[in-house]
Write a structure and sequence with these properties.
The chain has helices spanning about 1-40, 70-75, 80-100, 100-110, 115-125, 135-145, 150-160, 170-200, 200-210, 215-240, 250-255, 260, 265-275, 280-305. By secondary structure, it is mostly helical. The relative contact order is 0.11.
């Protein structure tokens, strides 16, 4: 019986490949890209456990002290690293606390607008900052929030108030950092939620209206449950990036007066790795970031599944 099934399975596979060979051929290029530029370079993670030498391959380099964990010990003994770790967690947590619900609320507000032209105009205006680089946004921030020459502080002085050190005092700098992040990503991040809102069955709103639900109740009992899977999925993905950090945003907005709160892991890696040529140390820091982010991702996904959500996988 088995001998009869084997040729049948082979013919089935051959017929399948005859029809879909072009799709697999197109898939070959991205697979090669990921293999060459993503997976093969992973071998250089070993630099975190070895004493880096420019004249030796990664396989020939000698192992570091402390059973290969010398640079991890050195990183956690470095005051700048601990400061950068604290700042990364703080800024990412504030971004998550303020920046994550902002596009949800914005999408809900846009969804309630009855005037389509105004809705499209608002969407276009809020999408535009996403396409600006942080270098441009930092230049605009200096023109708007500078202590002496910024437009906001000029207006405050003319109204009789003291100028606010948006970019030179650590507390105000953090608030400005978070505000600019929300302003840049608000419209773009709301696209996913607006797409999810279009998938809600209109009959649910009609049924709620027949039951006497007002606008707030329809949002609470129909709209929010309808986009909850999308919210949970994006929340899990954001929690998986809790220890990652962009380089251009803090680097462009930073200055010497706020270094204690603006120095994050990305700028730390740049300072010690690119400028300081301590490649093993900064590779260890990058590996630590990746491992912690993966742990957060798996933990958030498991927690979501435990409470009845689908999760990411």
């Amino acid at each position: 019986m088995a001998t009869l099934l084997a040729p049948r399975r082979i013919r089935k596979v051959v017929n399948y490949l005859r029809y879909y060979w072009s799709l697999y051929l197109m898939l070959l290029l991205p697979l090669l890209y990921f293999a060459i530029f993503r997976y093969i370079p992973m071998s250089y993670i070993l630099i975190a456990f070895k004493k880096y030498s420019l004249f030796q391959s990664v396989w020939e380099m000698p192992w570091a002290d402390h059973w290969g964990f010398e640079y991890f010990v050195r990183a956690f003994s470095n005051r700048d690293f601990l400061n950068a770790l604290r700042n990364t967690l703080m800024l990412n947590f504030l971004d998550l606390l303020v920046g994550f619900p902002a596009p949800i609320l914005f999408a809900l507000l846009l969804n309630e607008l009855p005037f389509m032209r105004f809705k499209r105009f608002t969407q276009t205006v809020t999408y535009m900052p996403h396409f600006l680089s942080w270098v441009i946004i930092a230049g605009l921030a200096v023109q708007v929030f500078a202590p002496q020459t910024g437009l906001v502080n000029i207006a405050l002085r003319r109204m009789g108030f003291d100028p606010i050190p948006f970019l030179t005092e650590p507390g105000w700098w953090v608030a400005t950092y978070v505000f600019l992040g929300v302003w840049k990503s608000l419209g773009w991040n709301s696209i996913i939620y607006l797409a999810a809102l279009t998938g809600i069955n209109p009959e649910l709103y009609e049924a709620a209206e027949i039951d006497g639900a007002n606008r707030w109740q329809k949002i609470r009992y129909v709209t929010i449950p309808g986009i909850r899977p999308t919210i949970i999925t994006l929340l899990i993905l954001n929690l998986g990036q809790i220890l990652s950090s962009d380089f251009d945003r803090p680097y462009a907005l930073s200055n010497a007066l706020v270094y204690d709160v603006s120095n994050v892991l990305a700028t730390y890696v740049y300072t010690y790795g690119i400028r300081g040529l301590q490649f093993s140390l900064t590779t260890a820091v990058g590996l630590f970031q990746s491992v912690v982010c993966v742990i957060f991702l798996f933990a958030a996904n498991a927690l979501a599944k435990r409470y009845g959500e689908r999760g990411v996988w």
